[in-house]
Specification:
globular; mainly alpha
Length: about 375
């Protein structure tokens, strides 16, 4: 197992390199970079970001990732020296290849530079937003397991019966509903949209959070996460339920279960004492993967719908603003987390069932 983990760790570097190369190349062809956005704001309002940039803001330690041309759309009437100064402040005066390798060198040292428009380091931004995304992903994953495992076992025991049929119908409907659409439905129904105003519409805490007692803070936090966690759970809950059911059905049909029943053991003891451990192997070992899946795929839409200040929303706003240090910093963090979680998932399989040997399977 040690050799297998070492090989997987060594594969992280070329994988991250490939991710950054592809996205760096794509960004070179994207119009509307930070310089163009500043020019557009200058032409439109003659203030805001212009004042901040003219005063020396932006830049940062990390190399920029998109190039600049002296011929920007909408730059007519602006002094060429001013355009050149903007390019220099963002680092666009360097050739693309030089910027790319400078970015790689900085990223190897976890130096992601500063946000172009927020005057804060990318690391500080990620650390500031990460607790919100982790909180949503963790609660959603735990809720999915809490519901799906008992329901999946029940469906396996009653396979083909009416209970299994109508719950399968509900699961299919739940799986087919996009999380963002379900989130909007929850807002309309329970957050003052058109019917009831039971839960808050946005944020994870109330305005008077600081003045609340510890118990009141916990209740206030739980009150705020009900709707976003429910919207996040809808897809993973359906998948995990069917996975649990199929895993139990496969184990129930095996010979050791027939032998245990022939010995006179009760059905409950057969299921809990014999089937459960083997059937839950794939379900338990898949916990890290499910968490990271919810963390990545759902955070952007749900955080935007419920106005939650997490990593997904940060990455979305950075992409809209062409804040490339933040875009590539969050991309790097997401990619690294995904690769590490993949290794942890494999290790979890071995921990749950020592009979699994990835090295032999690779051979």
């Amino acid at each position: 197992m040690g050799a297998y983990v070492l090989r997987r760790l060594l594969l992280i570097l070329p994988t991250l390199f490939g991710i950054l190369v592809i996205n760096f190349v794509l960004v070179q062809f994207m119009p509307g970079g930070p310089v163009e956005q500043i020019i557009a704001e200058i032409q439109g309002e003659s203030g805001g970001v212009f004042d901040r940039i003219a005063g020396g803001g932006g830049g940062g330690g990390s190399a920029p990732v998109t190039g600049g041309s002296s011929e920007y759309r909408g730059a007519q009437g602006l002094p060429p020296d001013f355009i050149a100064d903007l390019e220099k402040q963002f680092g666009f005066d360097k050739p693309p290849l030089e910027r790319f390798f400078l970015m790689l060198w900085n990223y190897m040292r976890f130096d992601f530079g500063e946000s172009y428009f927020r005057s804060i380091s990318v690391v500080d931004l990620v650390l500031e937003k990460m607790p919100v995304s982790i909180s949503l992903g963790l609660w959603s994953t735990l809720l999915a397991y809490t519901i799906s495992i008992p329901l999946g076992i029940r469906k396996a025991v009653r396979d083909g019966m009416p209970f299994d049929t109508w719950t399968s119908g509900l699961i299919i409907v739940a799986y087919s509903i996009p999380s963002f659409l379900f989130a909007i439905l929850l807002i309309v129904l329970f957050a003052g949209g058109s019917y009831f105003q039971i839960f808050p519409l946005r944020g994870l805490t109330s305005d008077n959070w600081e003045s609340l007692s510890l118990g009141a803070k916990i209740l206030d936090y739980l009150w705020h996460i009900v709707l976003p966690v429910t919207a996040l759970t809808i897809g993973s809950f359906a998948t995990l339920t069917l996975l649990t059911k199929n895993s139990f059905l496969e184990e129930i049909k095996k010979q050791y279960v027939v032998t245990a029943r022939a010995k006179g053991l009760s059905e409950r003891r057969v299921l809990i004492g014999h089937v459960f451990r083997n059937a839950m192997l794939i379900v338990i070992a898949g916990f890290p993967g499910l968490f990271i899946s919810v963390f990545f795929s759902g955070s952007l839409i749900i955080e935007t719908v419920f106005s939650l200040d997490g990593l997904g929303r940060l990455g979305y706003e950075a992409a809209i603003q062409r804040d490339y240090p933040v875009v590539f910093g969050t991309l790097y963090v997401f990619g690294l987390l995904g690769l590490v979680i993949g290794i942890i998932s494999d290790m979890t399989y071995v921990w749950v069932d020592p009979r699994i040997d990835f090295e032999k399977r690779e051979a």
